[in-house]
Design brief:
- The chain is 17% helix and 47% strand.
- The chain is an alpha+beta fold.
- The strands form 2 sheets. The protein has a 6-stranded antiparallel β-sheet, with helices on one face.
- Helix 1 runs antiparallel to helix 2.
- About 5% of the residues have low confidence.
Length: 199
């Protein structure tokens, strides 16, 4: 029941965000984090552990996009393309990535990834067991240029069992993931939301 309510809330939130976009906005082939109202932030904070909303804007040459989550342990890729989803796209839309604890097992989180655009909303949900860690931090890219040759990192959730302070991945990581892979070794577990746009 909690998942159904969360899905309804996220759908309503997405539609309100997309409705606010100007129809005459010029496409720049970009990904960006939208400004949320206090109410929208409160809804996300009360319904999920971690939440990310990323808007995309592309020209007519892009026909579809894929999103998925990768899992790294101490910098090593252990689960590629978790929950991979591919959908057709037109111009503007929003990617939503949230995690929430399940009622029956506090070590298990539900990962929810949605893509919303004019054609509707596609969603994939799957459970992920997360062992208790001392600290976690999450972050997302501010603004990224889309091109059809890159698989972009959009957001991260990092867990560490160390007693020292934990900080999020650098801003340079999202723009040049391959050049910053060593950063992932600083954490026990990292989940990365990735995307790919194709023409």
């Amino acid at each position: 029941m909690k998942r159904i309510i969360l899905a309804i809330i996220l759908s309503l939130l997405t539609f309100s965000l997309v409705a606010c976009k100007a129809d005459d906005q010029k496409s720049e082939d970009i990904l960006s984090v939208p400004e949320l109202t206090a109410r929208e932030k409160a809804i996300l904070e009360n319904s999920s552990e971690h939440s990310f909303l990323i808007d995309f804007s592309v020209d007519d040459t892009y026909k579809e996009m894929s999103v998925w989550v990768e899992k790294y342990e101490f910098g090593k890729l252990v689960e590629p393309e978790m929950g991979r989803m591919t959908t057709g796209i037109e111009k503007n839309g929003t990617i939503i990535f949230t995690t929430s604890k399940t009622d029956d097992d506090q070590k298990r989180s539900m990962f929810n990834v949605s893509i919303q655009n004019d054609d509707g909303t596609d969603t994939v949900t799957y459970p992920e067991k997360i062992e208790k860690k001392d600290a976690s931090v999450s972050a997302s890219a501010g603004k990224l240029k889309i091109n059809s040759t890159n698989k972009l990192a959009l957001a991260s959730i990092c867990y560490s069992s160390g007693n020292e302070g934990i900080r999020s991945l650098s801003t340079g990581f999202y723009g040049d993931m391959e050049g910053h892979m060593d950063e992932l070794k600083e954490y026990d577990v990292v989940y990365l939301l990735r995307s790919e746009f194709t023409k």
